[in-house]
Amino acid sequence: MKNIVSEQLSPSYGFFYTFKERLHHERTAYQNLELVATEEFGNVMLLDGFTQVGERKHFQYHELIADAPLLAHPCPEKVLIIGGGDGGVTHHVLRHPSVKHVTQVELDERVTQCALKFMPLVSKGALSDSKLQLIFADGKEFVSETTDRYDVIIMDLTDPIGAAAELYTQGFLTRLKAKLRDDTSYVSLHTTSPIVVTKLFAVIINTLRATFPEVMTFYNYIQMYGTLWSVSVAGTGTMLKTLDTSTISKRIAERKLHSLLLLLTGATYHSLQIEPPFIKQLLAERVPIAKTVAELALE
């Protein structure tokens, strides 16, 4: 009999994959952490029973949350990552040659330690890069206390439930906006699934649009999450409107990323932002802004 990871995405829908061996399980100071060896994704990390990252196919997520905002910026040098303890985002950020310094704030040190031990292929050495300052602390507190400004801020978080929920509220997003360097700087974050948590997706997008002048959302089927997913990039200026296909293609070429990117090209950068009618209808509905975590508890 095969071992199965079964993940419920909504009260009536979910997905599963099989695993060969349970590599590790523990209760950290913050969450249940588990690693399993699978045929489909290689080694996989789960937090509180939800799949976070696998050694294979994670580009479907990491290129959107990391490379998309970096390609939107003409010359990103200073980057803040909140979360992302597995090091996948860090690896993607450091592939951009203009990046001079990365500050990463991860809450749970055990996530990083276990990722380095059981799935080093995700970070590929990025977590020991000299450009990286890795801090184990609360991201909310760090943002409140730091006086630094950043070209790109990436929030690689768990879903907006529990401890992570406050980081999706308008109050925190407003504080985050104040840490952007200028009107060519961007925040990126995953904005859940427009398929299985429709109201939550709409509230997060509505909150972003109420907080930032510019928001662009990418849609992609992410196999390790079992459904259509979304990642959004938000900024304070008007530069996102100028990012045509040729601009993105040129930046990919100049940064020598064309042989590394498996999802993003000048063309797909824009095609992945196309909203089908059902999403347009969903976002046209009256939904609240997440001023508190209560507005996120909808599904």
CATH superfamily of the largest domain, please?
Vaccinia Virus protein VP39
What is the class of the largest domain in the CATH system? Alpha Beta
Mean pLDDT: 96
- Strand share of the residues? 25-35%
Shape: globular
Based on CA atoms alone, the radius of gyration comes out at 18 Å
Architecture of the largest domain, according to CATH?
Answer: 3-Layer(aba) Sandwich
Compressed to H and E, one letter per element, the order equals: EEEEEEHEHEHHEHEHEHEEHHH
Number of domains: 2
End-to-end separation = 34 Å
State the helix count: 10
Summarize this structure briefly.
The chain is of the alpha/beta class and 299 residues long. The protein is built from ten helices and 13 strands.
Describe this structure in words.
With 299 residues, the chain is of the alpha/beta class. It has two domains: 3-54, Spermidine synthase, tetramerisation domain (Spermidine Synthase, Chain: A, domain 2, Roll), CATH 2.30.140; 59-296, Rossmann fold (3-Layer(aba) Sandwich). It has ten helices and 13 strands. The strands form three sheets. Strands 9-8-7-10-11-13-12 form a seven-stranded mixed sheet, with helices on both faces. A four-stranded antiparallel sheet has the order 3-4-5-6, covered by helices on one side. Helix 6 packs across helix 7 (198-211). The protein is globular, with a radius of gyration of 18 Å. The two termini are 34 Å apart.
